[in-house]
């Protein structure tokens, strides 16, 4: 059974945190701090609740000014990284917004805390409260020598960052986000490139024309920028946006035939659905995007179409065979309903084949 993310904040973690705090503040009350953390409701706290509880408890056990607290936490942070270090960014998010006089202290802290972790959630609260000052800071970060800091300038302003509060203003008009993207679009770091592409993909869901214009102006400049553009258009490609398909030369499909399609006609819940097919042509197949769609039966007897990628590249041969499978295990994110489902095959955004299959209940 997979370990729950919230259990990163374990007894061992709090022990290590307490030791590090005492190393940097000799009068730190370790035993009292541990008792304050592990209150009766601790076990019921989810990940973000645990992070917030730890950061608020830190505040109570560091009886200093905000700047002095941050100075201590910057030293402590050196002993922690990745998700476990998110408590430090959360401390800034909770206590660094109270007075603009602390703005520079908070920005320096988030800059340090994002290294080997991420300040992408905390910075969003500063965008909401001190937009101009924060965006200017993020533009400055975009020129940093450190890829973690450069990534923060992109990741932090994503309009739809998962698990984070949405930046509604930038969903409506992402002009300021594009100013940061322009500074980072030629970044040499894959870590940063992925963030820029994810940012573009976010924007495409609300402002597709702006992303299409960006791609039109930036294609064929470099291999890296081409990758950013394509990855940033993945939602538009998945929804078969014709302009985007044309931009990436996924506009031809009539010369391609699908043959030897074979799929399971009936499967049981918790089994895999297997299918295979061949694509062929009288000429080299060329630039092609191959996808499949599952039309999942819903509780109201309608179907919900979900598209999955198979291949997206140039095929220089005249034929290619694909074999795939799709799990029909129930998950927290998807419940399967017994009855008729459909599978479709898409070539360059066009559905060229659709077949039905039946999902059976294992209890029968």
Automatic annotation (TrEMBL):
Taxonomically, the superkingdom here is Bacteria
The protein's matches in Pfam families, at most eight in alphabetical order, are given as: DNA_alkylation (PF08713)
Q: Fetch the InterPro entries from UniProt.
A: ARM-type_fold, DNA_alkylation
- Protein name in UniProt: DNA alkylation repair protein
The scientific name of the source species is Aliarcobacter cryaerophilus
